[in-house]
Amino acid sequence: MLNRIRRMRCILSITDSFSYPTTSEASDVIGDPGSGKSVVMRLLAERLARLADLSVGVIHHPQSNLGDFYRELGDIFSISMRANNRWGGFKALRARWLDHLGSASRRPVVLVDEAQEMTPMVLSELRLLASARFDSQSLLCVVLSGDARLLDKLRREELIPLGSRVRTRLATGVATREELLACLEHLLATAGNASLMTKQLRHTLCDHAAGNYRIFIGMAAELLITAAQHEITELDEKLYLQVFAQPETQTPRRPAAR
Which residues are CB-contacts of 28 (< 8 A; sequence separation ≥ 6)? Predict the structure, then answer.
């Protein structure tokens, strides 16, 4: 519960940081695979979509080279980019964001999932794009989401200026037993069959998921697939043992000595 409250507070803090003219340019979400980073980004995107006068873009190909990165930004903000005129794209994007700030109370936002895949050159270019007037004016808000490799990358010498601009950071850690159970109950209720799993099975799944949402959901999905194949209407611990029990290994017999 405390982790969930902390995440929601962090999402609210990130959202509040987009108000102009604050100089905060970047926020990040850091965590291991399966710890809920993408869910945080999805919740953030849904919350931002409800705000008026806010332009939100999502980078879908973080591993792009610099030219493709500019083309993707141009596609997001409806600007025609020429491959042989990157300076023109730089000016056009900043002019578009300045025009937006002239008529809106919030700066444009760019969300990047799997940001650890971005090259240092692209990350540096994003920093230069996002500010004006000798770093006194922020034109763009950026939210980076990635695993520990992103944190290591931001510590590189050439990216320290970008790392120093991160004002809000959310670390998604190991999920508690209560959080996993609440997640499962929500998914079952949303699917329309809240009584599909016995209480004992739910607790067993929580105990064996290592605090990782992806492992947790993967185990539940495997149980559901097996139950559908055998037309089982209620999933219980017996099914869990059938699916996940370790097969007994027989020690090969040694030939008798003559």
Answer: 115, 143, 144, 145, 146, 150, 151, 154, 166, 168, 169, 170
